[in-house]
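tool_call: predict_structure(chain=1)
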Amino acid sequence: MTRRLRAFKRWMRSQGIDWSDALELADSAVEGVSVWAFCDLREGDLVVTIPKLACLTIRTSKARDMIEGAGLAGCLGLAVALMYERSLGPESPWHGYLQLLPERECVPLVWSLEEVDSLLVGTELHKIVKQDKCFLYEDWKESIEPLILSRPLKLDPDSFGVEQYFSAKSLVSSRSFEIDGYHGFGMVPLADLFNHKTGAENVHFTSISSRSSSDDEGDGGICDESADDKLSDVDLSTRSSGEDPTVLEMIIVRHVEAGSEVFNTYGSMGNAALLHRYGFTEPDNPYDIVNIDLDLVIKWCSSSFSNRYARARLSLWRQLKYSGCTSQNSEYFEISFNGEPQIELLVLLYIIFLAEDAYEKLRYLIDSFEGVDESSNITNLIKITKSKCGETPGNISCHEAPEDVKELMLTENVCSALIPLADMRESLYGSASLEDDKNRLRSCCHVKERKLYHSLVLRVSERTILGRLRAYASSNSKRKKRKLKLPKSKII
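tool_result:
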């Protein structure tokens, strides 16, 4: 056992943190600290109990008065508390815990701008990380610099600079847990040492509260104010009032064999989210997606038709109450891991390709779509715009109710449009081909070239999904053509 692990264990004992003898901490210069099973662990085993007062929060930090006096809260306030306790060195009550943490997590937020531009270009993270850097600098300038300049506080500028804030924020966003309504988010010693594995959670983090007698579970969150969607990294359970409300527990929820690593899960996340928040990726991650910006779709439409035509078709799409996903200042469509496009994108492309008479008819009857569910909405759209009295595009009967409403949208024109959209989206990665990226990934060392390795995993995954989108469009187009060639009596 390393010296820092021994110091951490002594510190935990001094804080009343109790952990099972069946857990073993391992410290690797390459992989960092991880938690392993010394013997078999069974579902329901209580393996860790952590007093809430042992957690580093705004409420427990010596900087509480300063933070609350400045009106700071949430992740920003917790980052300041972390910087403050670090500035105290051995005098901090959390020194035994803080000495175990890295200076910063290797998340893109703390990469240089040159690294962000060269390694993440074209990926879902490129613009997001650059925006995050700007937002966090503004946070520091508006909220933390005034604390440094305040003479009565006598803060050391070297402990509260921009670089220190970015480092603290990387730790807070990747390691903090939501504790309860009083403490909010906090750094939870030992709980943050369990590594993530998608779909393989062994241990469950719970918060005991005396405010309720139910066993309902709520969603714990990651302390990440820059995220639009709050992905869960822990599940917080409310226990009965007969239990101690001042402690946190970790309970085994899946059998662990002796000698195996014990995993937590940070949520069902794709590689973009994992790299953004935690600094790592997982090959063949089933939660990976690729986004196609609405602006890119409009650019394609304007080049194929005209700007006026594109604006008119987009306007009708919006009048039908459709929209893409939104994040900060962008609107986009998701392409799933298997290459299937978001239904809203298919509807937009379908409307773009409508003949003028069908387009005008749809505009005239737009009020008929009020209060209708999505599936019926699409069916009505097809019926209104059908090319002949008894026939819809692709020879789908007006009375047919397919299980997948996407089937109704996949006309030949829509399928043919998906391929150039995939090409335009892939061009954002630069001149290197997918095979070039795969070759670089195979020859890359994930230890010595960590940033390059994980950025390549992300690039390869996203570009592979775009390849699946092309295959999806091509196969559906061919199927439509085969269906059109069949006699009507043989069409199923």
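agent: The mean pLDDT is 86. Proceeding to next step.
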